[in-house]
Design a protein that fits this description.
five-stranded mixed sheet, six-stranded mixed sheet, alpha/beta, globular, 240 residues, binds manganese (II) ion, Purple Acid Phosphatase, chain A, domain 2
Length: 240
């Protein structure tokens, strides 16, 4: 048995191939796993649990099929989809986790995170993150009519693309000091995160201790899946 970890699918009706591949993954490979962790940015946008976009609903239905067949399902918020609530958990049969969270499986402890909170060099983004994660801001947003929320989400995505295009790439990667502090505070030797869309397995030392940072990739051109089993971690691609 294995646990699988994915992130950054950015599922959107504008690129239906991603959603189709992911639904195939849920009904196939994931159905044989004991757990699936989705570390944020599953959807390009999530405007609230009353979201009725048919493409997103088809993915929610596939997640529900997976959990109904006995695979444990866990989610973290991403920077695109931080508005899941209790109805999303009910509709999928999944559980929302804190970010970061420490998970123990197969005798190993790993810290799982979306990864955006580690990109502390991107100061304007961290300011925006603090705003949209504020409970009062979220309540006010969710009280708006669905159509208004959809428009605001489109506008936010345009703003985010402009911001990303205007930033030096290194400012949008994880900050090494922030990362080392997290290894230290959590007392783990493995951190798994997404967000940067730079998949890879990195060995590093923190206070003389060997540590591993695993970055799951996006699903724009192909799938990216981390398999975690008794033999350890294996990051792999899933061609479309
Ligand atoms: Mn992200």
């Amino acid at each position: 048995m294995a646990a699988l970890v994915v992130s950054d699918l950015h599922i959107d009706a504008a690129q239906p191939g991603i959603g189709e591949q992911f639904i195939g993954f849920l009904d196939g490979e994931a159905a044989g796993a004991e757990a699936l962790y989705v570390l944020g940015d599953l959807f390009e946008a999530w405007i609230g649990d009353d979201d009725d976009d048919p493409h997103r609903r088809a993915v929610v239905a596939a997640l529900q099929r997976l959990s109904a067949r006995g695979t444990e399902l866990y989610f973290q918020y991403g920077n695109r989809d931080f508005l899941y609530g209790e109805r999303f958990e009910r509709d999928t049969g999944g559980t929302l986790l804190a970010d970061p969270v420490i998970v123990t499986r197969f005798g190993r402890r790993a810290l799982l995170a979306h990864g955006d909170a580690l990109c502390t060099d991107d100061v304007p983004y961290q300011r925006l993150r603090a705003l949209v994660r504020d409970a009062a801001w979220q309540q006010a947003f969710l009280a708006l009519p669905r159509g208004t929320r959809a428009l605001l989400a489109d506008e936010a995505r345009r703003g985010s693309r402009q911001h990303t295009a205007g930033q030096a790439p290194m400012l949008m990667d994880v900050n090494p000091g922030t990362l080392a502090a997290l290894f230290r505070a959590a007392e783990v030797d493995t951190i798994v995160h997404g967000h940067t869309h730079r998949p890879g397995v990195h060995s590093l030392e923190v206070d003389g201790r060997p540590c591993t940072r695993i970055v799951t990739g996006d699903w724009y051109g192909e799938g990216s899946v981390l398999r975690w089993d008794a033999d350890g971690f294996e990051l792999g691609r899933r061609p479309r």
